[in-house]
Write a structure and sequence with these properties.
By secondary structure, the chain is of the alpha/beta class. It has one domain: Rossmann fold (3-Layer(aba) Sandwich). 43% of the residues lie in helices and 16% in strands. It has an 8-stranded mixed β-sheet, with helices on both faces. α4 packs across α10 and α5 packs across α6.
């Protein structure tokens, strides 16, 4: 039996107008207004700044140890979303991970088509490296379209041969913009948030003249060998469920360490409503455990290497 609060959230989601009915500007406005249901956390420090022309914000929990960093890329179908709309979700992930988190306002389509948003993500990652933050202490995370950018960013990191991030965290990832997954049909009556027609439209807004099969547009088509470990979370009621499952299978075959979680009765990026939804808080707790465990291992390796180098200098 579904909880009362889950039923209320599902009713709210089903009442929202579709992209075709609202238009892009209203769609953006509705997402921004949704952030008003959350309160700013008093146990976190926020710092606004710019990387070139990209608006950014540090989200730093009071118990941050100075060890781990997350680069977070928000969702919104490539056409909406911002630091503001995803601040509560990003803050909860930062707190559970005991990490400082950098969230950015990457450029949105259709005004800025591919690869503008991806280029902003690359710029932010390279900025972190230039700030002497070790790559082995960086997690790249994102939800929905932001998860697409996160995976495309990691593929770009590999292609550019710059230091690879330690982890990836992908929430309800939309990684096939050709929209070929079987769950589009299987879950179309269960998904309260998304529909295939709207997603196909936003895919065209983002890709522009670029082929939807391009590996940096639909990163599920990329060569995943050599990528960092990834945690993937998706709900069994969303039409993008099979994007998550297919990605996990392909990544495992490529030798990537993958943790896939399909959450029962959950919808697209249910984490967003964690203030009200226990399943959201539990999922974010899993994210924090994943990041802390993998980064702790990286710290042990890094400290061991540093000790060895210091011992060698003595001789």
């Amino acid at each position: 039996m579904k909880s009362k609060i889950l039923s209320i959230i599902l009713k709210y989601l089903r009442s929202k107008p579709l992209l075709k009915e609202s238009g892009i500007n209203k769609y953006r406005s509705l997402l921004e207004k949704s952030a008003k249901i959350f309160k700013i956390d008093k146990h976190v420090n926020f710092k606004k700044f710019y990387i070139n022309s990209i608006a950014c914000q540090w989200i730093i929990p009071h118990d941050f140890t100075g060890s781990q960093t997350i680069l977070y890329l928000h969702g919104g179908g490539f056409i909406a979303g911002s630091i503001n709309s995803h601040k509560d979700l990003a803050t909860r992930i930062a707190k559970e991970s005991k990490a400082q988190l950098l969230i950015i306002n990457y450029r949105l389509a259709p005004e800025h088509k591919f690869p503008a948003g991806l280029n902003d993500a690359i710029t932010a990652y390279e900025w972190l490296l230039n700030k002497k933050i070790p790559s082995e202490k960086i997690t790249i995370a994102g939800d929905s379209a932001g998860a697409n950018l996160a995976l495309s960013l990691v593929l770009s990191i590999k292609e550019k041969k710059i230091p690879m991030a330690k982890n990836m965290v992908l929430l309800s990832p939309w990684v096939d913009l050709e929209c070929k997954s079987n769950s589009y049909d299987l879950n179309k009556k269960k998904d309260p948030m998304l529909n295939k027609k709207s997603l196909c439209a936003t895919a065209e807004f983002y890709a522009g003249q670029e082929n939807l099969s391009n590996v940096l547009v639909s990163p599920i088509n990329g060569n995943l060998q050599g990528l960092c470990p990834m945690l993937i979370q998706a709900g069994d009621c969303e039409i993008l469920q099979d994007d998550a499952v297919r990605l996990a299978n392909i990544a495992e075959k490529a030798g990537v360490k993958v943790e896939l979680e399909i959450w029962e009765n959950m919808f697209h990026v249910w984490h967003y409503f964690s203030r009200y939804l226990p399943q959201g808080r539990k999922a974010i707790k899993k994210i924090g455990q994943f990041i802390q465990t993998n980064c702790h291992k990286a710290d042990l390796i890094f400290n061991s290497q540093l000790t060895s180098q210091q011992n060698m200098k003595k001789y």
